[in-house]
What we know:
This protein is an all-alpha fold. It is built from 5 helices and no strands. The protein has helices at 7-20, 26-33, 37-58, 82-93, 102-131. The radius of gyration is 25 Å and the shape is elongated. 3% of the residues are buried.
Amino acid sequence: MAKPQTTADIAARRARVAALRHTMSNRALAAALGVAESTVRRDLAALDAEARAAEQATAPTHADAPRHDAPTPRRLVLDLDDDLAAALRVLVAAMPGVRHTPATERAAARAAIRATADGILAAHAAGIAAAAPSGRAAAPRAQLAS
Length: 146
């Protein structure tokens, strides 16, 4: 019985399949890697799906198109020192299959700002809830109409 493959084993095999995919047939590739041809076909399909997903993630969508009634976007110009530039590269690198472009760097910076703000808002809401006598945020009491 074959030993179960780890995610690292599968990733390494797919990397070899990706490197050799245009140099030989699926059967020859399977023989060279010591796997079944169906495994090579599945790996190729997975690689193609990942490539399509990466293209769709970076392609502008209809929702990204500016609306005529949308408010004017505000701009933030930020000078990046070496540490901040390195942190931005780490954020972009965390997005699989994405290249370092100004658009992806903007997307990574926006995501980081939103995630930080969400954390602050959640902590603030938890602090208000903890300070309330009943363990939840105190709400004004409703008055019954007579």
